[in-house]
Amino acid sequence: MTHFKTHSPKSADVMHVTRNDRVVTWELNRPEQDNGLDIDTLQAMESSLTELERDAKQRVCLLVLGKPMMFSTGLDGELVKTCFGDAAIFREIADRLNAVLDRLEALPLISIACIEGVCRLGGLELALACDMRNMSMEMRHACKKIKPPFYGFPAY
């Protein structure tokens, strides 16, 4: 059972999707909310993934980036509050986010997370679902095992 709407005209505003020749770019566009992933952002990712899966032979690369100094802090704060108030909603959102990350990881093209600034929680999960990560020296994250220099490293 879906507790949330699955389409919103806001989807285009929360994540800009651009296509340039054989490269597709996802630019998270919620800097006031630390690029938190909300329902509209998940919808935009799902729609774009459907298109990428259908046109995989026409594309070679997906770039995922946030606004300067803010990659993503994961799930949107208001959505997290809602999830903690209702176990069924929490399970639905966790399953939906995991499905997006699984689809991103399974794409038959190269995906690169371009990380500048803050990258935590679900934002770090998003970055790890990509094949490679390109990190600026200004990147701040919550994973103690990752230390400078950040030259990008493959997913395992």
Average pLDDT over all residues: 79
Distance between the termini: 33 Å
Q: Strand-and-helix sequence, N→C?
A: HEEHEEHHEEHEE
Number of strands: 8
Number of domains: 1
H/I helix tally: 5
CATH architecture: Alpha-Beta Complex
For the record, what CATH class applies? Alpha Beta
Question: What is this structure, in a nutshell?
Answer:
The chain is of the alpha/beta class and about 160 residues long. Helix content is about 35%, strand content about 20%.
Could you name the key traits of this structure?
156 residues, 5-stranded mixed beta sheet, disordered N terminus, 2-enoyl-CoA Hydratase, Chain A, domain 1, 3-stranded parallel beta sheet, 8 strands
Q: What would your notes on this structure say?
A:
This protein has 156 residues and is an alpha/beta fold. It has helices spanning 11-14, 39-54, 77-85, 87-106, 122-129, and strands at residues 15-20, 23-28, 61-65, 70-72, 110-115, 118-119, 132-135, 140-141. The protein has a single domain, classed as Alpha-Beta Complex (2-enoyl-CoA Hydratase, Chain A, domain 1), CATH 3.90.226.10. It contains 5 helices and 8 strands; from the N terminus they run αββαββααββαββ. The strands form 2 sheets. Strands 1-2-3-5-7 form a 5-stranded mixed β-sheet. A 3-stranded parallel β-sheet has the order 4-6-8. α2 packs parallel to α4 (87-106) and α3 packs across α4 (87-106). The radius of gyration is 15 Å and the shape is globular. 33% of the residues are buried. Mean pLDDT is 79; it is low at 1-9 and 148-156.
